[in-house]
């Protein structure tokens, strides 16, 4: 398992409720791919959302995001953290 | 205080030790601007580093990063998180 940071653009105006629902949609199906979404942060002004996860691969992260209806624009493994 | 996510590009090949030293350089002077750097994640392959902080403004975050020798390429307020 590796930690991943993924980024979604084009989410301008996202509300706290929409972020919560999107995160819950991921959590509801994440076990299908052995992924765990740990945290998400949103900037409604620029429309950027960051998600931190533990997953077997970037493709597994993307499959969950796609099935939940919000494909990521970038997915980076972040094996280093401090 | 607002939470911020900032992004550094061009850090390909960064090591765990370099990430730790960069983070410690921020922590050593963060109080000058009332900033607190909470966490940082790095992708050595793409050369991307993400930093999460609490700060009074994006400019305050940037001033600390500049003084510590690693200006951020993007700084986004992330007032929403889940």
Describe the protein's topology:
The structure is a homodimer of 82-residue chains.
Chain A: E1 2-8, H1 16-29, E2 36-43, E3 48-55, H2 58-67, E4 74-77, E5 80-81
Antiparallel strand pairs in A: 1-3, 1-4, 2-3
What does this structure look like?
The structure is a homodimer of 82-residue chains. Chain A has 82 residues and is α+β, with helices and mostly antiparallel strands. Chain A has a single domain, classed as Alpha-Beta Plaits (2-Layer Sandwich), CATH 3.30.70.3090. Helices cover 29% and strands 35% of the residues of chain A. Chain A contains two helices and five strands. Chain A has a four-stranded antiparallel beta sheet with strand order 2-3-1-4, with helices on one face.
Summarize the structure.
The structure is a homodimer of 82-residue chains. Helices cover 29% and strands 35% of the residues of chain A. Chain A has 82 residues and is of the alpha+beta class.
Seen as an oligomer or otherwise, the chain set is: homodimer
* SSE class of chain A: alpha+beta
Task: State the order of secondary-structure elements of chain A, H for helix, E for strand.
Answer: EHEEHEE
CATH fold type of chain A: Alpha-Beta Plaits
Percent in helix of chain A: 25-40%
Question: Which range does the strand content of chain A fall in?
Answer: 35-45%
Main pleated sheet of chain A: 4 strands, antiparallel
CATH superfamily of chain A: ORF SCO4226, nickel-binding ferredoxin-like monomer
Major protein interface: A-B, 26 and 26 residues
Q: Give the count of structural domains of chain A.
A: 1
What spatial form of chain A do the alpha-carbon principal axes imply?
Answer: globular
CATH-defined architecture of chain A: 2-Layer Sandwich
The CATH class of chain A, by name, is Alpha Beta
Cα-atom radius of gyration of chain A: 12 Å
Count every beta strand of chain A, where a strand is a DSSP E run of 2 or more residues: 5
Question: Can you count the helices of chain A?
Answer: 2
Largest beta sheet: strand ordering of chain A: 2-3-1-4
